[in-house]
Structure formats: structure tokens, C-alpha cells
Design brief:
Layout: E1 3-6, H1 12-23, E2 27-32, H2 47-51, E3 58-62, H3 68-82, E4 87-90, H4 106-132, E5 141-145, H5 158-177, E6 184-190, H6 196-204, H7 225-236, E7 247-250
Parallel strand pairs: 1-2, 1-4, 2-3, 4-5, 5-6, 6-7
Helix pairs in contact: 1-7, 3-4, 4-5
Length: 256
């Protein structure tokens, strides 16, 4: 069995990804910070939500994706429990904004950049050596969640757009650095997906609910977390061997 580490696993796309991996026969170390961030005005995933994913092939672990120490511990759990690490899925993410960038509080900007970009970078720095510890020929995967916001300017979410564009650049750089190792790096860019992050985005825009965002997508509906998770799990699999450095849009056509 292959083993994956998933961040931001307590809810939304992260939880859907854990469930999809299990259905495909993976072992999973599912991590989440399981605590609110005082810099952000909305609640994050909880310990109870994370623990609901635990099972025979799922080990849950409280870990902050911005903490190298927490992530090194998660890698150690994967290697000690399951014998190694084959895929890393960087799903943890937050949103903040609702005002022009120059009016946004500095701590909110820092929170977005810390989690959405530096968290992915830290995860790569900690986990790629573990992927490389698998003997050749390898089929390791580093997969990150980016966003349609990486390429489409969204008013009053400039810091979020910047962080997600940074993820795309990071993935391209990683893919080049991993040349010849058997390990690939790719990302998925969701559109408006039914998650707590989208609910917070609706609040920031003063909308009654997140359903408003459905009209922006040619599919004329919100995406479900499971639809994004399906792409993440495919990229984590050995079947995606011909893909690296890619940004796969699962956005209902939002970026068109």
C-alpha cells in the first residue's frame, strides 16, 4: 500500500481527499492544526472533525503546516507506522480580505501568506527528502492545492491571489528540481467549491450565501469537495506518471 500525508484534513477538500485516498487503498497520515488562528475572523477545522477520519488505514495528527517541527513529526509517523511516504498533498488553506490590500490588517495578510504559500513551501522542504528516501525507481508525488485566484485577479483578495500564484511558481520550480528522481510536483486549481473557505469569501463580499458564486462558472453550480479531491488523488497516484509541473484546473470553467 502507498502512503500519503495530507494537510488541512479536518474538513472541506482535505477531508474529502483523505476519504478518497482510503477508498483507493492508501494509508494516510491526516493532519490539521485543529485550532483557530487569532489573525483570522472565522473558525478553522476542529480536533473532532479530524478525529472523525481516523480508521484502520488513517492516522490523525495535530500539526500546523507552517511548523517545520510539526511536519517532521508527521513524516516520522508516516515512516514508523507505514514504512515510508509516497505522496504529499498540501491542502491546508485560509482566506482573508474583503477590503483593498492597502486597507487589510497586516496580521491578516501575514496569515494568508503564512498558510497558503509558506506552509506549502515548508511542507515541500520537509517532505521531499522523505519521498527521496524511497528506493529508485520511485513514483513519489508532491501535490498542492492552488486556486483559480492564481491566474484570475479577485478584488479585495489580493493577498490570497498572490499566495496562490506563488504556489504555482513553487510547483514549477520543484518539478524542475526533481528532474530525474521519479518524483513529480503538480497542483490543482479549484474554482468556487462548497467549503468553509468559500463561505467566508461570501461573507467578505457581503453576500447572503456562497451559492452566489455558482453563476460565475460555466457549469452554473458550485463544485463539491469530492470533485477536487478526485483530481488530487489521481495526481498522487502512479497513473499520473506523465504529469509534472502542471496546474490542473478543476474550476467549473471559472478561469475561461
Amino acid at each position: 500500500m502507498r502512503t500519503a500525508l495530507v494537510t488541512g484534513a479536518a474538513r472541506g477538500i482535505g477531508a474529502a481527499t483523505v476519504r478518497a485516498l482510503v477508498n483507493e487503498g492508501w494509508n494516510v497520515v491526516a493532519t490539521d492544526r485543529c485550532a483557530d488562528d487569532p489573525r483570522l475572523p472565522y473558525p478553522l477545522g476542529t480536533r473532532a472533525e479530524l478525529e472523525s477520519l481516523a480508521g484502520p488505514t488513517v492516522t490523525t495528527l495535530v500539526a500546523d503546516t507552517t511548523s517545520g517541527g510539526d511536519l517532521r513529526n508527521a513524516v516520522a509517523v508516516a515512516e514508523e507506522t507505514y514504512g515510508g511516504l509516497d505522496a504529499v498533498l498540501a491542502v491546508a488553506g485560509v482566506v482573508a480580505g474583503g477590503v483593498p490590500l492597502w486597507e487589510q490588517p497586516e496580521d491578516e495578510v501575514a496569515a494568508v501568506l503564512d498558510v497558503d504559500l509558506l506552509g506549502v513551501l515548508t511542507l515541500a522542504r520537509v517532505t521531499v527528502p522523505a519521498l527521496l528516501r524511497r528506493p529508485a525507481p520511485r513514483s513519489g508525488r508532491f501535490v498542492a492545492v492552488s486556486s483559480a485566484a492564481a491566474t484570475r485577479g479577485l478584488p479585495m483578495l489580493s493577498a490570497y491571489c498572490a499566495a496562490k500564484a506563488g504556489v504555482n511558481g513553487l510547483i514549477r520550480g520543484l518539478a524542475a528540481e526533481l528532474r530525474g528522481t521519479g518524483i513529480t510536483a503538480s497542483c490543482v486549481s479549484p474554482g468556487s467549491t462548497r467549503t468553509p473557505v468559500l463561505e467566508e469569501s461570501a461573507r467578505l463580499y457581503g453576500l447572503a450565501d456562497a451559492e452566489h458564486f455558482a453563476r460565475q462558472q460555466p457549469l452554473e453550480r458550485l463544485l463539491e469537495p469530492e470533485e477536487v479531491a478526485a483530481a488530487l488523488v489521481w495526481l498522487a497516484s502512479e497513473q499520473s506518471s506523465g504529469v509534472t509541473g502542471a496546474d490542473v484546473a478543476v474550476d467549473g470553467g471559472l478561469a475561461l
